[in-house]
């Protein structure tokens, strides 16, 4: 059977109406992975045997009338998600033989809801990067043009969904690692509010910025997955104790009368012309759908990258200390250049004498960035419901183009990092193509406004239907 265009919704409906079995679906995805992934390199580990065994069990469950929200749904997991009994590498040689003895909360939740793990996906080692090329398991290719990067760090998860190798894949977003690759591959990427989805069992990058989300083909699929992953687990102290909302309830309510802000600091000269055009087209569509768009200001946006690269590297240097070959990892240090660069930068900014000038300063600017957003979202004083911005300053670049220029690579995060600094949610949705390569927009909202982001994204998606386009492999 052809699974290329299947959404989560259509798979679960197909089971219900007995159009196909779980086994057929799982087999078809595994076949596609075999056929296409040698070239795309989106998976590090494929769990063929286990997935087929699970599929049999799920078919029995379905026959026995078992009701679970994701029963028989195949999923892929970024290789930063701990999986009991399945190798979890963080895409680094340091952990190439590491087999966790427990599951991340998100993995447990998805499995408990009936999902089946197809495999673990490729990404920049330790999630450090914007192109997927920092992986010790080789770069992932963009299925829309294999000479181009799919964006990173969650390169494999984005590609696996875009190429129809899985209907959903998880990701982590510390500075844009879900939203950027989603926009480069024509899929939907959700970075939830910090504190909405548990970080327990996910290999930490920068603990105050890490956000756990996922890639899907459609917005309603994204909402469905968040419904399963969101909420307190007793293991991540930063989780909100508020109950997750019903993310599917208001999806189809339309966006008439919503106030959508376009921050002038995001649409600058630095924005590539093609991105600007696609973005303006998207704003027009949102207006046609009945939203009111207005200019807002987020004055500290220009300090985003600098602030992020101080706070993030400081936290990275601390989090990577446990991979010293005593607690985790091999006796030989096998960190790649990018991890070493970040450990050194972070150690420097945290050292006595420099702490106040760098780390403390960055934390002060962090507060200013957060306040910018709070002010923009303050409806009682002329603010907006949500903000619309491009997902990336440029369209995808060629593989190899920026690997030797870390600063150029860091700058590609300019439009995504401030959401992590402020802890707010962001949804990246497809917004068209340029020269056959995808372009995306991001919808940003106040903390815990994922339901609103889905509602806006859904209206936009129903009008544009870019998700129906799939790459020619
Ligand atoms: N590209 C950014 C970085 O290299 C963000 C990575 C991420 O979100 N994990 O740090």
Supply the key terms.
single chain, alpha/beta, Amidase signature (AS) enzymes, 473 residues, 36% helix, 14 helices, three-stranded mixed sheet, binds glutamine
What does this entry look like structurally?
- By secondary structure, the chain is of the alpha/beta class.
- The strands form two sheets. An eight-stranded mixed sheet has the order 4-6-5-10-11-9-7-8, with helices on both faces. It has a three-stranded mixed sheet with strand order 1-3-2, with helices on both faces.
- 36% of the residues lie in helices and 13% in strands.
- The chain has 14 helices and eleven strands.
- It has helices at residues 8-16, 22-40, 48-63, 105-112, 155-162, 179-185, 219-229, 273-288, 304-319, 337-350, 356-376, 406-411, 417-422, 450-464, and strands spanning 43-46, 74-78, 116-121, 168-173, 188-191, 211-216, 259-263, 292-296, 386-390, 426-434, 437-444.
- It has a single domain (3-468), classed as Amidase signature (AS) enzymes (Alpha-Beta Complex).
- The protein is globular.
- Strand 2, helix 4 (105-112) and strand 3 (116-121) form a beta-alpha-beta unit.
- Bound molecules: glutamine.
- The site of glutamine has 14 residues, from strand 4.
- Glutamine binds at residues 127-130, 153, 172-177, 205, 312, 413.
